[in-house]
Amino acid sequence: MRTITLFLITTISCTVWDARAQDKEMFYSRARALAKQTDPVKATDSMYAIIQDLHLKNSEDVDMLKGEVAMAYLRVNDEAQFEAYIKQIWNKFNQTSYLNMGAEELLNKKINLAYAEKIAAQTVNLYLSYKDDPAAKPAEFPLEDWNRFMQMAMYPYYETYAAILHANGKDKDALFYLRMALKNEDMDGLSPEVAELYSTLLLANGLEDEAWDILLKMAEAGRGSSAMHIQLRKLGVKKLGSEIRTTVFLDSIRQNLEAIHLASLTQKMIVDTQAPDFTVSDLNGKEVSLVKLKGKIVVVDFWATWCLPCIASMPAMENLRKKYPEVLFLFIATKDKASAVNEYCKKNKLPVHTFLDKPAADVASSFKVSGIPTKAIIDRNGNLRFQTTGYSSDQELMLEMEAMIKIVKDL
What SS3 class is residue 163? Predict the structure, then answer.
């Protein structure tokens, strides 16, 4: 949700900025550096230096700086200073945006959830206090765009609050606020993460028929998570009367999806392209070269410890590695610190077959990786056959990867 919120803030800021282009770029460059500052006192000093050096009078830009300073204090558990800087933010929309960022960050880190609930409630209440107030709109901001932003903002604020209420065991209230978040949303476009939360809350409140509809729709679209698959199976046994009937029913859904993926991916297979050769070292310093792996199907997974979608995809990738022992899976950590990769792998016991890209991300660059996670599938002759980027759900990842592996195995 931080991405959505920052998009809204920066869009407002860009709309009302009246400085020269180079000044704007300088501002964003220094603001990004401030946001990375871990010491809140230094972050505060940086904020005042930016305001003074760039002669800032624009409240939107100063709001952004104060919001990042507030976040720096939150990360060292200084709740009083976090709230103090939030209150200094001029625009109420920016206040709610940074309150929501704070609540979401605590939720993601699974820390101080009582305080996360408090500031998530403040976010919702503050949003409700100004969403229909024309005075809250920046003077230079078009009314139509402002109304659209207000509509967009409702979703992350309510969804974050619902997720935190659920984490604190308040599932009845959580369902109420999640329904509020989804009131104007296209249910067919529901993300797997939110769909899982929705089905969990429906089941917790005894609404099994509604949960079944959501779970079935996501399964048929190939976008369910592992947890949703478990939920669907349990409900299936209740509805269909036995494990066997449920297995047959779910298998039919999966087979249909597999056929669709096979047909689609066969058309997208890369031809006449040799995979870039590379040599990487594992966490113990042992080298592996692609040129020496001819005769094997190789799956390369470019990832990083700081990449949340990469981490989310790891359990599904581990299941694939176990399911296809004849395929060699190489997990290459790119643009990451060796110490962070070592610590992560030691703590989580995966990914197995972890290797380190060079600091300049040479291997990722040779594969023209534009984002992570990226998976590359290489055939027995060293030809690059598939390359895919991103992660949305376990089910979608598993279906796509299994289809690509099957196609390459049959070559």
Answer: helix
Using the 8-state DSSP alphabet, how is residue 169 labeled? T
User: Are 278 and 378 in contact, with CB atoms under 8 Å apart?
Assistant: no
Of 121, 118, 111, 120, residue with least CA distance to 1: 120
Residue 12 has pLDDT above 60, yes or no: no
Query: With 70 as the cut, is the pLDDT of residue 241 above it?
Result: yes
Q: How far apart are CA 366 and CA 369, in angstroms?
A: 8
Instruction: For residues 177 and 193, state if they share a domain.
Output: no
Name 269's Cβ contacts closer than 8 Å, sequence gap at least 6: 385, 386, 407
Does residue 15 belong to any structural domain of this protein? Answer: yes
Residue 273: inside a domain:
no
What is the model's pLDDT at position 22? 59
Amino acid identity of residue 8, one-letter, is L
Q: Which of 242, 268, 294 is the C-terminal boundary of a domain?
A: 268
Which of 236, 268, 300 corresponds to the end of one domain?
268
CA distances from 64 to 6, 97, 139 (A): 9, 10, 18
Q: What is the mean pLDDT of residues 195-219?
A: 96
pTM of the model: 0.79
What H or E segment, with its residue span, contains residue 29? helix 21-35
For residues 238 and 289, membership in a common domain is answered with no
Domain of 398: which CATH number? 3.40.30.10
Q: Cα–Cα distance between 4 and 357 in angstroms, integer? A: 31
Nearest to 121 by CA among 67, 170, 78: 170
Closest CA to 108 of 65, 53, 68, 164: 164
| Residue 148 forms part of a structural domain | yes
Same domain, 326 and 178: no
Q: What is the mean pLDDT of residues 248-266?
A: 92
Residue 251 lies in domain: 189-268
Instruction: Clarify whether residues 101 and 157 are in a common domain.
Output: yes
Inside any domain, residue 117 = yes
Q: Which of 93-97, 105-109, 375-379 has the lowest mean pLDDT?
A: 93-97
pLDDT in tens, 307-318: 989 999 999 999
β-strands 328-333, 298-303: how paired?
parallel
Q: What is the mean predicted confidence (pLDDT) over 130-153?
A: 79
